[in-house]
Amino acid sequence: MYYHIIPKYFADTSDREIKLASLEIPELGLNLTDKELKTIKPYPNQRYHIGCLRHGFKGRNFVGLILETDHIISDFTKICTWTVHFHPQDIVKIAFRMKHITKYKLLDNNNLMFSEDKPYLSKIRTEKNYCDISVMEFCYPYHFEGVNVQDVYDKSVDEFYDDEGVIIRREQQIETYTTDIEAYRDKSARNRIWPSLEAALKLYSV
Predict the structure, then answer these.
(1) What is the pLDDT along the chain (206 residues), one digit of tens a residue?
(2) Of 27, 110, 167, 180, which has the maximum CB count within 10 A?
(3) How far apart are CA 145 and CA 176, in angstroms?
(4) pTM to 2 decimals?
(5) Nearest-angstrom CA–CA distance, 35 and 203
(6) ∠ at Cα 125 (122, 126), nearest 5°?
(7) How do 95-106 and 113-115 pair as beta strands?
(8) How far apart are CA 200 and CA 186, in angstroms?
């Protein structure tokens, strides 16, 4: 089974300094620190920060990383810890630790792959599909095309803030489906920023 994991942070400005400090998926036996991770901005919208493996595959950076296990795990938890430099006046850089916990439940086992890449969801943010996207944000509440995220999330997301109203912890639950593996192979072959299955980090001990 392949898992395409995309640690994602959406900042208030493109020059905000944000780093992925750790990535853990206990059910898959994954526990990475900043020694193995790096943070890149691969999208045209430079406010998106994406975590990936520091050394990549053949020296390349990708959108997220691919994990490979020897059996299907339908319930798993992605735990991202982000280091964010923040000060109300941006005079002094103070590093905040922010945690994003996403609990995934796969609703089928029709394919041997799961991917967090949901391009049609990122383009069409509606009340029906917004919660299918796992992303940490700098500030709250946030509005996309007139949709109040506070109303959209309902009971699927719990959030905790500091005195400035900045999210310091988000806990999210997502139910979703597996991904067609050949469709993903075709996409990664056509777009060099998507990790190929050959770049998978093997986790056979889970």
Answers:
(1) 999 999 999 998 888 899 999 999 999 999 999 999 999 999 999 999 999 998 766 667 789 999 999 999 999 999 999 999 866 555 556 678 999 999 999 999 999 999 998 653 333 333 344 456 899 987 644 444 444 455 545 557 888 887 767 788 999 999 999 999 999 999 999 988 899 999 899 986 55
(2) 167
(3) 23
(4) 0.83
(5) 18
(6) 150
(7) unpaired
(8) 16
